[in-house]
Amino acid sequence: MSQRLTPLWAGARDSLPMLVGAAPFGVIFGTLAIATGIPAWATLALSALVFAGSSQFVAVSLIGSGAALPVIWLTTFVVNLRHALYSATLLPYARHLPARWRWSLAFWLTDETFAVVEHRLRQQGNESDGAWYWLGSSLAMYGNWQLWTIIGVLLGQSVPGLADLGLDFAMVATFAAIVAPQLKKRPVLVAALLAGVVALLARELPFKLGLMLAALAGVAGGVLAERLATSSKPEMKETT
Amino acid sequence: MSLQLLLTIAGMVVVTYGIRLSFLVFGHKLSFPAWLSRALHYVPAAVLTALIVPMALAPQGAIDLSPGNAYLPGTLAAAAVALFSRHTLAAIVSGFVVYGLWRWLV
């Protein structure tokens, strides 16, 4: 038994910095959802069943502004599509596992668990206890996210009128703080600028369709800028 | 409202779980195109900026660059602190302080 508990514990322990990092976002998410008028059951269900922080934030914003269902689903798809990349990257380490393991580990796949598990498996190879390590990280992240969501929900319920205090600004501040450091890279800056301009111009479109339009324009702009940068400066490519 | 929310969440679960399952469960039938992984790189910045800009520049619907719009200085403060300190939480708190002070003073 301890041969399973040891890697399980190690996976959880190695995720500790990620647990600490996710905590404030769990609280902000729970509080914000309640302040937006989303009932507690739905807020908890988002964390328990979707379990994908950034898309949960985006969904709260979209639900609050009365977006159409397909727009919310499509945005969720776009925001979470990076997980397919993680799923593909980790497949070599999971191929030998029984189906019930792969179905379970897939459910708990997040940015954080991907970072921790991919690092460990790449360094130490695919030992027999790799799956338990992966599970340890997954369960720690999952329990952590539920706990801080609940605390956020309780906070939101105990302080009514948080929305009037400008809690809707918390979302803007959170997103701005996440995006700003990425803007140092030229193509990302292009993507953000294009997305911002299109979102502003298209903000009156029904069902928040402007968001999809802006996201597409931004991504296309970023890819194009990257291509232009690498083709015009081939000598830069070698140094970076 | 309740049914609408239930459908919202159910759809999000299907979409998100489907993406995560893709390669881990159906990997032998799939391949990940290189252009898509490059495009994915720009999704967070594009989506988040698309959400931020209308909220910061037009919180009431119409573009508002007047001093009465506290969202703008607050957002700029959060972005600036994040850019220079790389400390997300400090940036959020700074944004909030500027936003709160602005609303109180202006």
Automatic annotation (TrEMBL), chain A:
It is a multi-pass membrane protein. Keywords: Cell membrane, Membrane, Transmembrane, Transmembrane helix, Transport. The chain crosses the membrane at residues 25-50, 57-81, 131-155, 161-180, 187-203, 209-229. It is found in: Cell membrane. Its main location: membrane. InterPro entries: Brnchd-chn_aa_trnsp_permease. Belongs to the AzlC family. This is Branched-chain amino acid ABC transporter permease. It comes from Vogesella alkaliphila.
UniProtKB/TrEMBL annotation, chain B:
The chain crosses the membrane at residues 6-27, 39-57, 77-102. Keywords: Membrane, Transmembrane, Transmembrane helix. It comes from the Bacteria. This is Branched-chain amino acid transport protein.
